[in-house]
């Protein structure tokens, strides 16, 4: 979470606490930095501007996806276990099917430059490195020593390809695990992406649904969920606090649990997320609902009831392991197309922007004395000069 966002979250939490209300906990581990941001925006204006897209009348856009496998400097921990070109194409086919449900008319194609030979970069491949002899007071964070160079190392590679979405296949997605008193690092899903970043990070064991989710983030889609209560009881306490503070029940439900409403997507339902659905349903979050999912709470001396209908089949929700036919909505299609046609992803669909970046040397060698951060910044600047010509 960016520090400004964290500060805002803490401020909001503090205000709620001051009002005598229980505050939602801050966002849990996430694959994108935007969960806790909820901007005040003019959704109606956005929808009017992009009415054609929302009506399913968008022109076709084709976007290249360049898969870049990574490994450590010595070739170890490659991110290519079980991956073939056929597998990559099947992922893209699945993502395209999900994006087509909203008539987005955005089609992903595999970049012909894709090679399954990993780029060897320990810096780009690893989230963290193991502290082999941690102190008796070791914490997961001290055992898994964060690799501070990773984002710059990935950006320095990805920014050389302004005309493609670079998806890193990496094997160094680690989290610490203690077994028999000894710490080791074990693999995690390791997916990460954001609307401002220059790449998609993709760990082993994923597939086309997860790829659709991460590329969704890259094209400015937020999660359908926001705060993630552990149970209906917790959700009901949060709702009651907000209604006591002056929101209507519907406003409170939306402001707590609709992660993308404040981010220009108005047509996905609020999503109290996996844990609540699983605990309320008593049959896992994927299965059919065996009891009505209803939130009941008292505030201002009244009883309120809200039906819970999370958008479980939406690709930007966190039900990706369920065996569903996943979808996107017209609002999400409009948001992705705006990223491509009007915002920082224009080099993907306008060859003149990509050519400008290549002509400025975005892919060229830079002085070896520069740090990875300086190299990444220099490449980003070249792209920015083409996106925002003076
Ligand atoms: Zn995500």
Describe, in short, the structure shown.
Helix content is 36%, strand content 15%. With 390 residues, the protein is of the alpha/beta class. Bound molecules: zinc ion.
Layout of helices and strands:
Layout: H1 3-18, H2 43-49, H3 51-54, E1 61-71, H4 85-100, E2 106-110, E3 119-120, H5 122-125, E4 128-130, H6 140-143, E5 144-146, H7 150-158, E6 164-169, E7 174-179, E8 182-187, E9 200-202, H8 208-218, H9 232-244, H10 249-257, H11 273-281, E10 294-299, E11 302-307, H12 330-342, H13 351-359, H14 372-387
Parallel strand pairs: 1-2, 1-3, 1-6, 6-9
Antiparallel strand pairs: 4-5, 7-8, 10-11
Helix pairs in contact: 4-8, 7-14, 9-10, 13-14
The structure holds zinc ion.
The site of zinc ion has 5 residues, from helix 8.
Detailed description of the structure:
The chain is α/β, with parallel strands linked by helices and 390 residues long. The protein has 2 domains: 61-222 and 324-387, Collagenase (Catalytic Domain); 226-310, no CATH class. The chain contains 14 helices and 11 strands. Strands 1, 2, 3, 6 and 9 form a 5-stranded parallel β-sheet that branches. A two-stranded antiparallel ribbon has the order 4-5. Strand 1 (61-71), helix 4 (85-100) and strand 2 (106-110) form a beta-alpha-beta unit. The longest helix is centred in the first third of the chain and has 16 residues, at 3-18. The two termini are 32 Å apart. It binds zinc ion.
